[in-house]
């Protein structure tokens, strides 16, 4: 249901795309649906009986009329989802269990900084990955892929068989977690692990469009070997007055800051009002960072989030209880 809407340029809220987070919940007013692989935690039995569905996994059994929330914002383009093929140009291990994948596409992909694509596996299934490159280079996209032990996509393909020169298929763009260019407030980018990918796209986009926003990037990882693209961001920090890079390690001692991103944010910003925040990482990191931001008096309307759910999150029924005012 979601895919059909997006391919017609009709945007409806969505995030995980595999029935786990509940963002895409909509009401079926007319018709019948197959709920597919919807998590019982994200879609309760009582909600199913009331006519709700998670449209990212639900399939129509008849013609449908659905009711969903549309949160449009001026300056944010809506790009219809399309299918693409491409060739792997680069497959680099940038950190333990993290690979940078650069794909040359058969045609340009229009997207907003922060959005993601669905990478199609050899068996036809797909997995979502945020785009780390910018719309200024639409014929090449950069992905940061973290290995999930036992993961069908990572362990079974990307880290095992995928090689430079291979052909791949993907679709996109997806998601409303994207940079809001018309907002003039200082920007807080808060990421952990490969949650850096969409934030990197945003920083580089600001640089390419004139650096008219003040941007602070927090990147939290466990150990120093996990801190990839560190030299690049240090160089950007040194070269641009509008950009500040604040990396942190949660397990290792080093010559920089230690601790988790939510704690460091609380130290730096006892009051964060007057900013726009973009948060991306594991569900636990995102949830804790949201609490820190709201404790610092940043209104939910100024917070955007993206949770990285992996196969283990899905199996465990991981989900987020969140304010409906915080946008993805």
Percentage of residues in helical conformation: 10-25%
Spatial gap, N to C terminus: 19 Å
Low-confidence stretches: 313-326
The number of helical elements comes to 8
The secondary structure category is alpha/beta
Q: Name the helix and strand elements from N-terminus to C-terminus, one letter apiece.
A: HEEHEEEEEEEEHEEHEHEEHEHEH
Could you describe the largest sheet, including whether it forms a barrel?
6 strands, antiparallel
Could you give the count of β-strands? 17
Shape: globular
| Strand order in the largest sheet | 9-8-11-6-7-10
State which percent range the strand residues make up: 25-35%
The pLDDT mean sits at 91
Radius of gyration: 19 Å
Structural summary, described in words:
The chain is an alpha/beta fold and 328 residues long. The strands form four sheets. A six-stranded antiparallel sheet has the order 9-8-11-6-7-10. Strands 15-14-13-12-16-17 form a six-stranded parallel sheet, with helices on both faces. α6 packs parallel to α7.
Write the layout of secondary structure elements.
Elements (H helix, E strand, L loop, with lengths): L1 H6 L17 E6 L2 E2 L10 H5 L2 E3 L4 E2 L4 E3 L14 E14 L2 E8 L10 E5 L5 E5 L9 E7 L7 H5 L8 E8 L12 E6 L3 H13 L6 E7 L8 H10 L3 E7 L7 E2 L2 H8 L7 E6 L1 H13 L7 E5 L3 H6 L12
Parallel strand pairs: 12-13, 12-16, 13-14, 14-15, 16-17
Antiparallel strand pairs: 1-3, 1-5, 2-4, 6-7, 6-11, 7-10, 8-9, 8-11
